[in-house]
Design goal:
By secondary structure, this protein is of the alpha+beta class. The chain has one domain: Double Stranded RNA Binding Domain (2-Layer Sandwich). It contains 2 helices and 7 strands; from the N terminus they run βββββααββ. A hairpin with a 5-residue loop joins strand 4 and strand 5. The two termini are 16 Å apart.
Length: 100
């Protein structure tokens, strides 16, 4: 799963990739981000992806409020790199890990 970060001017300044996996447990789909330990569950695979994306987005944005989020990402072995594309500020999880 890919993510981006936007600076205060609205420019995308970093992007990165997170490893996620999905499986079924007791009739529920469960998604897990390996690097961050973030998890979510839902009745369908598609909804589990949506829930996991939202949980990761919340985790990264809240972490950015209380700590050096880039140090946090590095400590969790998340690969990320600088880029520049105009957007709003904050994190956004982008792309889909599911193929149809």
């Amino acid at each position: 799963m890919q993510f981006t970060h936007r600076d205060d001017r609205g420019a995308v300044d970093y992007w990165g990739v997170l490893t996620v996996e999905f499986g079924q447990e007791e009739g529920q789909w469960v998604g897990l981000c390996q690097e961050l330990g973030t998890a979510a569950q839902a009745d369908s695979l598609g909804q589990a992806e949506v829930e996991l994306r939202e949980a990761i987005d919340l985790q990264l944005n809240e972490m950015a409020k209380i700590a050096d989020v880039f140090e946090y990402l590095a400590d969790n072995q998340v690969n990320f790199a600088p880029i520049s594309v105009p957007q709003e500020s904050g994190f956004a999880v982008v792309g889909s890990v599911l193929t149809t």
